[in-house]
Amino acid sequence: MRSSFVYCFLVLFSLSTTSIAEATKSGFSVDLIHRDSPLSPLYDPSLTPSQRIKNAAMRSMARCDRLSHSRKENDLPKTITFPDASMNEYLMRFFIGTPPVERFALADTGSDLIWVQCTPCKKCFPQNTPLFDPTKSSTYRRVGCDSQPCTLLPQNQHSCGNSGECKYRYEYGDNSHTDGILSVDKINFGSKDVNVFPKFTFGCGNLNNLTDVDESKVNTGLVGLGAGPLSLVSQLGDIGRKFSYCFLPIGSNATSKLNFGNELATIKGKGVVSTPLIFKSSAPGFYFLNLEGIGVGKKMMKTSKSGGNIIIDSGTTFTVLEKSVFKMFSSLAEEVFGVKAVKNPPQPFNLCFRDEDIKNSDSDDDDTDVVFHFTGAKIRLNTLNLFSFLLDDNLLCMLMQPTKEEDGLSIFGNQAQIGYQVEYDLDGGKISFAPADCFKH
């Protein structure tokens, strides 16, 4: 009961932490850069497409394990555990302070706080740019420990410093963490002169650790897009608690767009379907949906759980299904495709078919459609959403994985969302989908 009360309290007071935005009231857009895009500072040109997708699969499983672990924690643990801080797939650029300082940070729908590394730093992970120095920003100030933003942090996740400042601590599932001072400063999204928020609450981290050190040098923090009261979307004031995106395929020479605002983020036109957005007090900040079943061709398998049995996540590449559900899906896919999956598929894949077997099967495209049946919304997945072709092995491997544990947490990953505009309406309590050419959105 106590955890439910705390969560309701956070939701009710989330708007009180908002900034008065100088950005246009219709909303604004920022670029999302996939870590494997040639435009990304993390891009490794020596990797083959097969190696990139295998690495993405490994990150997906690691993130899934952390999410499942996070969900099983007590409702009010000593510290709240979020997904892996270094396992996210998309980078976002913004500017902080006066004068504005450019930052690249990981964008994550699975956590809420926005934070960057700051001086003075007791322990920081390596980054290619200087740490943010709050003493050089004329608009910076610390948040007091008795202020409302400080009280919006989960219980036992904040404390009062010697000078009355609000100290925070966030832990992530891969043992990464950030400790620092809850602060307020001007933040610009997109460029130095537009989308200006003069008073944005963020974490100024001076004791930080990212487990994935080698790849973190270009990353200076994290931008939380979750449902918590201190997330980016919850601090947008009159713009509204709504955002949408349209993911491009991995490796594209273009950036995906992330739109914010009641007007700009709303998707319109034919083919829009919506499903209820479910929040859980035991896992605040995560976006749960209800998956009623999965159709393969003309056949359908139903899930046994309801009330929010899968989360939608931007930071996980693969779609992850509860172990028993994945087993049913695999059997149904073999039956409808008319071919047997290969034994001992290359790690980390779990369901692969020989390319020649698929080509020689009697099934046509209409017979092998895969449709995710969410409450009120059917999402059809095409070949790009479903398969990765491993050239070295001549295999078509599904971009789906089972959870390690029987009751693990299912995830609707970002690869399944490619080719769709996806809208998160926090106040309306729904997520909407519409097929789209994401190069135009």
From TrEMBL:
Pfam families: TAXi_C (PF14541), TAXi_N (PF14543)
Signal sequence bounds: 1-21
Highest taxon, organism lineage: Eukaryota
A GO biological-process term: proteolysis
InterPro entries xref list: Aspartic_peptidase_AS, Pepsin-like_plant, PEPTIDASE_A1, Peptidase_aspartic_dom_sf, Plant_Aspart_Prot_A1, TAXi_C, TAXi_N
Domain Peptidase A1: 90-434
Keyword Metal-binding: no
Keywords on record: Aspartyl protease, Glycoprotein, Hydrolase, Protease, Signal
PROSITE patterns named in the record: ASP_PROTEASE, PEPTIDASE_A1
Molecular-function GO terms, alphabetical: aspartic-type endopeptidase activity
PANTHER family: ASPARTIC PROTEINASE CDR1-LIKE, OS07G0603500 PROTEIN-RELATED
The family this protein is said to belong to: Belongs to the peptidase A1 family.
Protein name from the UniProt record: Peptidase A1 domain-containing protein
Organism of this sequence: Flemingia macrophylla
